[in-house]
Amino acid sequence: MSRIARCFANLAGRKALIPFITAGDPQPALTVELMYGLVDGGADIIELGVPFSDPMADGPVIQRASERALLHKVGLREVLDIVAAFRQSNTTTPVVLMGYLNPVFAMGYAEFAERAKSSGVDGVLTVDSPPEESVDLAAALCAVDLDPVFLIAPTTPNSRVLEIAKLARGYVYYVSLKGVTGAGHLDIDEVARKIASLREYIRLPIGVGFGIRDAATAKAIASAADAVVIGSRLVQEIEAAAPAEARARLTSLVTELKAAI
Q1: Exposed e or buried b for every residue in 212-247, given b needs 16+ CB within 10 A?
Q2: pLDDT (tens digit, 0 to 9) for every residue of the chain, 261 residues total?
Q3: Where along the chain do its domains lie?
Q4: CA 136 – CA 119 distance, rounded (Å)
Q5: Are the beta carbons of 90 and 52 closer than 8 angstroms?
Q6: Cβ-based neighbours of 244, under 8 Å, separated by 6 or more
Q7: What span, in angstroms and rounded, lies between the C-alpha atoms of 98 and 127?
Q8: Distance between terminal CA atoms of the chain?
Q9: Angle between helices 109-119 and 135-143 (to 10 degrees)
Q10: DSSP at 85
Q11: Planar angle of CA 172, 159, 147, nearest 5 degrees
Q12: Environment class of residue 43 by beta-carbon count within 10 Å: exposed (0-12), middle (13-18) or buried (19+)?
């Protein structure tokens, strides 16, 4: 059983909180400490963003986080080193890398999978890799017991949902709205209806992200989903804080969100 599957099994029906931060933001030396801060607040799984120069799903908040990390030359190899450093003290909290296909393709699927596994990664979500183009990557990940995690959008047709169901492991990530991360036009009733329809095809836990900014929204989403994913709001806390204060601010916010769900 993977760390992600074990996490959901141990929750026994309670809802998972999955916070996202960008590796290397605001500086590489701080990322592991911020990950520990997320765990202190009650994070069940951590999504760690891989900085990328040309994001297509990220809103301005996470785009700026990537830009700050890239100024420090943080790429895929450095992100794997960060996960390995986190694993020196934490061997239980699952870590999912979230990013774009280009750096993974450049490294090579098999090499990436082996390096990610040895670093302590548990799952990989490549935003711009649809299921039709993900068979080889998913096979490389599964060969070393890493979970390929996929996005499902409000516009995803049932035929593609079926393809995702065949390839996905760990959980699937439902994008709650048509837009980029941090957008604010979230229709909770529509999200609940969509999740109910997805359960006809998806047997894995379903996490929901995009547009979740506070405890009240997280609580409402948790009533329908198995997990709540929150990123831009946390990245804003990092952006606004002095480096010495960032961990405490993340822990405080995650504690509030965890209590709400």
Answers
A1: bbebebbbbbbebbbbbbbbbbbbbbbeeeeeeebb
A2: 899 999 999 999 899 999 999 999 999 999 999 999 999 999 999 999 999 988 776 778 899 999 999 999 999 999 999 999 999 999 999 999 999 999 999 999 999 999 999 999 999 999 999 899 999 999 999 999 999 999 999 999 999 999 999 999 999 999 986 544 444 566 788 899 999 999 999 999 999 998 788 999 999 999 999 999 999 999 999 999 999 999 999 999 999 999 999
A3: 3-255
A4: 21
A5: no
A6: none
A7: 7
A8: 25
A9: 40
A10: H
A11: 25
A12: buried
Buried b (16+ CB within 10 A) or exposed e, 165-190: bebbbbbbbbbbbebbbbeeebebee
Q: Which residue has the tokens 């765990």?
A: 39
CA nearest to 180, candidates 210, 158, 160: 210
Q: Which amino acid is at 203?
A: R
Element (H, E) at 230: strand 227-230
Element (H or E) spanning 232, and its range? helix 232-240
Write the DSSP symbol of residue 44.
S
C-alpha angle 1-129-209 in degrees, rounded to nearest 5: 70
For residue 50, what is the DSSP state? P
The CATH class given to the 3-255 domain equals alpha beta
Q: Give the pLDDT confidence score for residue 177 in this predicted structure.
A: 66
Q: How far is CA 12 from the centre of its chain?
A: 21
Contact criterion met (CB below 8 Å) for 254 and 17: yes
**Neighbouring-strand partners of residue 99:** 126
Q: How far is residue 189 CA from its own chain's centroid?
A: 23
Indicate which residues carry an active-site annotation: 47, 58
